[in-house]
Amino acid sequence: TIVNKKDPQEDNPTCNCRNPTTCPLDGKCLSSEIVYQATVIREDNSNQETYIGLTETPFKSRYNNHTNSFRNENKRHSTTLSQYIWTLKDNNIQYSVKWKIIAKGSAYSTSSKCCNLCHREKYFIICQPQLATLNSRNELASVCRHRRKHLLSSYR
Q: If residue 101 lies in a helix (H) or strand (E), which one and from where to where?
């Protein structure tokens, strides 16, 4: 008897990029519930600035939002990362952006009443500021955005 064993990767793909060599997260662009870092490298002087972000949804969706804010001037103030990119563009400075996952964490849980994802992002911004040179410190006072979907008012 021949048994067809499915590759477990087929059920949980980690990347759906047309060209895997251009995946922003080295084949892990479909990862969700992650804290990520974007490193912006200036081409003129090799200076690097870093940004810490998080996403509950697959990273690729968040990545597309970021790149959209880099292209559309009306979204230049969406994040401190996009503000920095637009400053470089306004000054005709070439740049590149490298992305990587820094941590994984579960989003808000009604049982623990805690969002490990938001806590991990804040940890990196506070305790490892060299990893988040572009982040504004007012992000630390923000309320967990993942909690909202669990409120009764969201069940209409």
A: strand 95-104
Q: Apex CA 139: angle with CA 47 and CA 48, to 5°?
A: 5
SS3 153: helix
pLDDT, tens only, 121-155: 999 999 999 999 999 877 676 777 776 776 655 55
User: CA-CA distance, 92 to 115, in Å (whole number)?
Assistant: 40
Report the alpha-carbon angle 107-13-99, nearest 5. 65
95 by DSSP, 3-state: which?
strand
CB 83 within 8 A of CB 77: yes
- Give the pLDDT confidence of 12-59 residue by residue, as tens digits: 789 999 998 999 999 999 999 999 999 999 999 999 999 999 999 999
The answer on pLDDT for 5 being more than 50 is no
CA 62 to CA 9: how far, in whole Å? 22
Which long-range contacts does 124-132 make (Cβ < 8 Å, 24+ apart)?
Answer: 124/35, 124/37, 124/52, 125/52, 130/50, 131/37, 131/50, 131/52, 131/102, 132/37, 132/50, 132/51, 132/52
